[in-house]
Each structure stands twice: as structure tokens, then as C-alpha cells.
Request: fold
Amino acid sequence: MPSLDEGQSPRDRALERIAHEINKAEYDRIPTSRQKLSQLIVAEFKFPPAEAADMVDEYCDEKAPAVPQYLSDEFESPFLKVMAVVNSVLAIASIWYGANRWHQQKTSWFWFVFGAFLVACAGYCWFKTVQKELAKR
Reply:
């Protein structure tokens, strides 16, 4: 006797998988996103990414509108890039101000140390960004 799964189309099984993942995430109180669901469908059912994204959007618009497009951790990488640029700009300004104070024969060591600290912070932010990008692959 054939099982019920054999009579279903891949699209129907994918839609059931989406519903199952949304219910599982709600039950476990774990956030999920449409992007994460579409990546799951691509990996599990080998649908093209555009078709999987359309399928997930269609399902979520009809039956689960509370599922967001992205999660906050997916915005973390751009935020770290912005922080790296801001820290770099502040470091350059601090070192420049320290150099001006040094040329005026005033105490300037604090501004050089502060600038070096900001350069280190910018480097750390950029390193974490690259690390997150590599972890996604």
C-alpha cells in the first residue's frame, strides 16, 4: 500500500515542511524568518532559491503573517560594518587632533592612545563581520 507521502507533489511536501517548521518554532519559542525557511526548502527539496522564496512568502502571507522576512542576527553584519567605519573615522580624527596638539607642544599622548584603541575596535568589528560572512557559507 503506498504511503500518503508518495502521492503528494514536492510542492505540497515543501508547504507541509514550512508549516511544520513554523509550528515547531512557535512551540519551542525560537524565532524563525522567511529567509531561513526558504533556505531550508532549497536545501531539503532542491527548489530554485527564487521559487522557494516565493513559496514561503505565499504561505506566510496567507497563513502566518507574523513571520518576519529577516531576523535581527541577519542585520548584525551590516551593523558591525557601520561600527567599523565609524570607529575608523573617530580614530583618524583622534590621531589628527593628537598630532595637532603635539605640534603645539601640548600633551597629546592620550589622543594617540585613544586613536589606537579605536583602530583596534574597528579592526575587531571588521574581523567579526568577516567571520560571520564565512560562517554563513
Remarks:
- The chain has a mean pLDDT of 85.
- The two ends are 42 Å apart (CA to CA).
- DSSP finds six helices and no strands in the chain.
- Residues 75-136 form one domain.
